[in-house]
């Protein structure tokens, strides 16, 4: 790990910075780079001891990005793009983390990165229009602007199960997996949670453990990832294709160059539909969830995709009851993030692996020896929580953010997040969220999403400087209109039917509202451009 060796680097300009960036994942690093490049003074405060954000923390076995490596990487610098060589179609967590470290070095970010700093407060002083940003260990930074690059999936959710802390074996969380790894050989392991993290980790945990018990509350759809290593030829072709690939991505709905089956579902016969699903399945990865246009809009197209995926489960899983339990019942396919796996369903054919369907057999309590469900006791040496995140808002509302009129973000968002374009938050001037609720973020390639948002914020700041404005704040009415639009748009799709983390449904007491903007990457870019071209109507500049 990188030690926090930058701790003593003095802050320039007598302590008043132009910008504090919170977080040094993909978004925070790019924000820091652009700030420094434009001559602004800036630091990025990062809780981890290295860059990468989610890719710093999520070191569980099998952690791998479900967006292809050639797409899930920065596009802003052509030579970076050409110099870095990805080794596989879907990069592993260690490789993505190495890439982030490489970018930090290559762009000279290190002197401006402060590791081991968890920001826990940001208060705005109205008199001099300055934010004071505080860390858990008592440091204070002063800055004109705050950029919140805190990630959408970075506030881990540890469920409050009865007896949780009484367990005497080893407790692990996928989102905070020990850096040194864990040897599970000879252990009786339990995993709670079957989202993307659990589904990636379970086959590898099963390989290592003496026995594995999977505690599943909701079944998820998962598609084989069909990863492969790149040959030199592959890479040459990919590099040559980068300009076209990126150009298509910037015009796309989801920030990658993929398109749906060229014909409308309703114009083709059953046989052709089946062939289209089979071809997508054979390509591997999340795009099965978008085989046809309108697959997450039209219930009948969605039903056809579900039928195909569910047949796959029954073909692979030998025990009919286990196959039935692994079949999702609570959401249209693709309306929860579709998972990708290597041998997930096959894992349940092994004699030492068992599935507990918590809908039929709920957890009563965690005991010192394991997990007690209504129907039995599961003795365990290791308990793994793959239980997800307080997504999209959790990392923001866990910080005590207070604006000039005493607004506290956690309170003002208790009825759901309110943003203008996902970036500006009324009540909080000179503060910008990257990939925040109300932006496409988690529905698209988050690296390009971050680049687009940072570029847009930079233009806004330059505009303010050029016109002598020292404050910029989203208007309340603009944020209301935007947030209503985000909600209404989601209702034209099947997404709100799923009890997903997009809806806040995985966190008890969280307001259920669809948080990301579902109008597509290109649609969102156009909305942002429209705001800029209207002299940033929707913001108060002063
Ligand atoms: O989290 P999740 P995740 N008792 O929220 C269960 C991205 N990601 O870390 O569905 C029992 O999806 C919960 O059950 P339910 C990706 O966008 C990407 O797996 O709420 N179970 C669910 O099964 C993804 O969507 C990659 O009923 C409980 C699980 O825990 C997002 O991150 C890899 C429970 C949590 O699943 C989050 O994925 C990893 C309880 N009290 C993550 N509380 C790739 O790129 C929760 N659960 C491949």
Radius of gyration: 23 Å
- The number of E-state strands comes to 20
Bin the helical content: 25-40%
Structural class: alpha/beta
Distance linking N and C termini: 43 Å
General shape: globular
Q: Characterize the main sheet.
A: 8 strands, mixed
What molecules are bound to this protein? 3-acetylpyridine adenine dinucleotide
Beta content comes to 15-25%
**Average pLDDT over all residues:** 96
Number of helical segments with 4 or more residues:
15
Uncertain parts: 1-10
Describe the protein.
This protein is 31% helix and 17% strand. It is α/β, with parallel strands linked by helices and 542 residues long. The two termini are 43 Å apart. The model is unreliable at 1-10 (pLDDT under 50). The structure holds 3-acetylpyridine adenine dinucleotide. 3-acetylpyridine adenine dinucleotide is lined by residues 64-66, 153, 159, 192-198, 200, 217-218, 337, 340, 358, 386-389, 442, 501, 506. The site of 3-acetylpyridine adenine dinucleotide (N01) has 25 residues, from helix 5.
